[in-house]
Hints:
Elements: H1 8-19, H2 24-31, H3 35-42, H4 50-60, H5 64-68, H6 73-113
Amino acid sequence: MSKQPSTDFGLIIRHLRTQRGWSLAVMADKLNISTPAYFKMEDGTTKPSLDRIKQISEVFSVQIADLIVTFDPNMALDHERERDQYKLTIDNINQAYTELLAKHVELIGHVRANGLKW
């Protein structure tokens, strides 16, 4: 018997669950359902009701739309990389600004010490 591939919804909730370090049993408990019932949603065997999707979105503190969009794990990694690169860029700008400000203060001190004018 061949297993059906996971749905995007299943991949999304698996990603969110594992990202939080929760086991299948912990997630099932949060939803007040059995672990096998929850697992069937993750592996795409069963489709959850709209009420269940709403409950899952509340457990993960995400919008319902975030659970039903097409999920690409590589895209999630790309967003994480972009965020990290952005942070590095901001850190670099802050460092460069601090260094520039220090040089500016040093230059002003030199100008004043030597009686020079701008």
